[in-house]
Write a structure and sequence with these properties.
Length: about 220
């Protein structure tokens, strides 16, 4: 599978603060004169966003894990073909909120489908490997408490704690298996400290030259 030097994914359990950190990283790259595309999974194109609405909607009963898996894969195939690859080809940095590692952690570790098989399918649908995956890691209780504070909740947020523990375990196993791609970031600290760790990691691993973040860069994101 090809990898692109400018493709970054951000992963983590619920309440890890991915969206905020993704925005801050995009801001830092843009301020440095880089062209940046920010996107997310499931979603990222109008059709994939329709799949997102379907797969994250609350349902009366449980959804079959394989059905769920194929919906995430279908959304990914569409997203990669019609958004991620064209943007990378045009020279942008692409930062994606979740990608193949989420499928392994949630549908494999979380739902109990065979993880090697899920990874194979997820990578096939993904077609391209991220150059860097930032895993925002924190204890499940902290993440879920943050979610409750926000009052948010899709169908998966409502899963019991044990499900999220399995997901976290899956992410940590992935980071151990691929340390050259997946960087574990301690997400239990402050917004500023997490951003600093991310900037340092992107500079170190991808040869970017982002300046250490200054307080004004964080304004509006507190
Ligand atoms: P988020 O945008 O809040 O991160 O929500 C997306 C939800 O979808 C989140 O609960 C994780 C879940 N998900 C999977 O279960 N498998 C996947 O492959 C992806 C991309 C997301």
């Amino acid at each position: 599978m090809n990898s692109s030097a400018k493709f970054i994914t951000i992963e983590g359990i619920e309440g890890a603060g991915k969206s905020t950190q993704l925005r801050l990283l995009a801001k830092a790259l843009t301020a440095n004169g880089e062209a940046v595309t920010v996107t997310r999974e499931p979603g990222g194109t109008p059709f994939a966003e329709q799949i997102r609405d379907l797969v994250l909607a609350h349902t009366d009963g449980p959804v079959d894990p394989e059905c769920e898996l194929y919906l995430y894969l279908a959304a990914r195939a569409e997203h990669v073909a019609h958004h991620i690859l064209p943007r990378l080809k045009s020279g942008d940095w692409v930062i994606c909120d979740r990608f193949t590692d989420a499928t392994v952690a949630y549908q494999g570790n979380g739902r109990g489908l065979e993880t090697a098989w899920v990874r194979h399918l997820a990578e096939h649908a993904g077609r391209i490997k991220p150059a860097l995956t930032l895993l925002l890691d924190l204890p499940v209780e902290t993440g879920l408490a943050r979610m409750r504070e926000r009052g948010a909740g899709n169908r998966l947020d409502l899963e019991h704690t044990a499900f999220h523990q399995e997901v976290r375990k899956g992410y940590l196993e992935a980071a151990e298996a691929e340390p050259e791609r997946i960087a574990r970031i301690d997400a239990s600290t402050s917004l500023e400290q997490i951003h600093r760790q991310i900037v340092a990691t992107v500079n170190q691993r991808l040869g970017a030259h982002l300046p250490a973040p200054l307080a004004p860069a964080l304004e509006g994101d507190r």
